[in-house]
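Example 9 (inverse folding). The structure is encoded as follows.
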């Protein structure tokens, strides 16, 4: 329903494997929940079409949160993270059968396997950093901007002290999403620390930073954690490292956390920047001074990107799987080849298998850093539709809206014209011609733009 305004019962049958009887039952239940959450209603007509024209992403998120909070599996996860809970204890607490509780335990174990965690001796065990990242992603994705998760009043009070301390110390100007993430980060970390679950940080990543301000904050923060949370000095030091790394990667503070000391991160960064410079930046369109600034800026951001993925400090698991091949074909081919060939050749892939998440951030880094007019000559495109300038202007506008590119649109042929777009065949032209059969539809504009860029 979120993907389509209208959906048929037969379509739901195919996608979900549910019978018509179960679909009718779910439909009634969902309508009750919609009425309670958003006072809107789905309609089921005689032709088997379900429609809900007022359904928005906000309502969908509210419903998802409601279902999460009612989920026995979610309660099993939460309870196991607070203190050990046996299957029988859980069944009594939530008034469900022991057999159903065992089913939930098996579901929980399968889920935890995805994050290299285990359910052992009635509690969730594994790398503490992974446990906190898992909690962060669940709470952020489901609770974000709707309500805050409940960790207990003491946790909220002391966590707020820490947030206020950090914001004041660095004079942070937080965005709304930045504020949500920072509060959630502190609450989850405080919640885990108070339940005696400590982080073991990466020895290969020095996050103390070089500036006096960061060094002073490092000392002050250790004292704060030791006093407020009652932690030994060594634990306070590791928790402070974790905090500084989070602030750095979230771009809340400017800290050289020296993750470039990690050999794998350094190799990936150097390899990528060498390739980028060779392919895109060795051009007289860029001054030496600007090239130096650009390389330094990109390298700094690249170290953060690689740190998040290669030492697994990515608190935010990306939900996006975007391919830019139509609008930014040259960058798409460059990044795809780099991840599939160059990474493999350097044997980095022996240690880190899944580089798919890096595609999106590498693409965004290139798109944001390198203007397309630096990497390709201007393409001169003449648009000449029989019906006249009203049509020509529309075609030019729609192609321009497909994204930045080094295209210069014209309405007259010249000796510089590379491509001629028209609805009439011109056999004598030496330049390439793209023939239109009437005005393109919405889905055709990206394809037409890609044809030009080729």
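The amino acid assigned to each position is listed next.
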């Amino acid at each position: 329903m979120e993907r389509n305004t209208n959906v048929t019962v037969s379509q739901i049958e195919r996608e979900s494997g549910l019978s018509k009887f179960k679909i009718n039952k779910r439909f009634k239940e969902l309508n009750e929940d919609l009425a309670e959450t958003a006072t809107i209603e789905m309609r089921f007509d005689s032709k088997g079409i379900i429609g809900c024209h007022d359904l928005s992403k906000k309502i969908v998120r509210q419903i998802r949160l409601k279902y999460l909070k009612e989920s026995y599996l979610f309660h099993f996860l939460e309870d196991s993270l607070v203190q050990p809970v046996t299957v029988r204890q859980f069944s009594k607490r939530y008034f469900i059968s022991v057999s159903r509780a065992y089913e939930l335990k098996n579901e929980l174990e399968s889920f935890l396997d995805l994050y290299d965690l285990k359910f052992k001796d009635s509690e969730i065990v594994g790398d503490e950093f992974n446990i906190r990242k898992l909690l962060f992603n669940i709470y952020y994705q489901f609770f974000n901007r709707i309500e805050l998760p409940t960790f207990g009043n003491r946790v909220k009070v002391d966590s707020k002290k820490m947030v206020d301390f950090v914001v004041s110390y660095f004079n942070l100007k937080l965005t709304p999403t930045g504020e949500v993430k920072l509060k959630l980060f502190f609450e989850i970390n405080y919640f885990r620390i108070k339940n005696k679950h400590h982080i073991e940080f990466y020895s290969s990543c020095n996050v103390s930073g070089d500036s006096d301000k960061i060094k002073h904050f490092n000392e002050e923060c250790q004292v704060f954690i030791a006093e407020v949370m009652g932690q030994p000095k060594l634990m306070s030091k590791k928790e402070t490292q974790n905090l500084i790394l989070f602030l750095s990667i979230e771009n809340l503070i400017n800290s050289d956390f020296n993750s470039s000391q990690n050999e794998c991160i350094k190799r990936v960064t150097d390899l990528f920047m060498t390739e980028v410079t060779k392919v895109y930046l060795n051009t007289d369109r860029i001054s030496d001074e600007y090239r130096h600034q650009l390389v330094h800026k990109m390298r700094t951001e690249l170290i953060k990107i690689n740190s998040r993925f290669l030492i697994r400090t990515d608190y935010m698991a990306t939900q996006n799987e975007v391919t830019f091949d139509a609008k930014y074909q040259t960058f798409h081919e460059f990044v795809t080849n780099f991840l599939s060939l160059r990474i493999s050749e350097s044997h980095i892939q022996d240690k880190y298998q899944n580089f798919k998440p890096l595609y999106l951030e590498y693409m965004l880094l290139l798109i944001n850093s390198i203007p397309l007019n630096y990497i390709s000559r201007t393409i001169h495109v003449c648009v000449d539709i029989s019906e006249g300038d009203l049509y020509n202007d529309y075609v030019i506008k729609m192609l321009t809206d497909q994204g930045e590119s080094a295209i210069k649109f014209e309405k007259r042929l010249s000796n510089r014209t590379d491509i001629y777009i028209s609805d009439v065949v011109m056999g004598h032209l030496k330049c390439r011609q793209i023939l239109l059969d009437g005005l393109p539809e919405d889905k055709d504009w990206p394809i037409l733009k890609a044809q030009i860029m080729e």
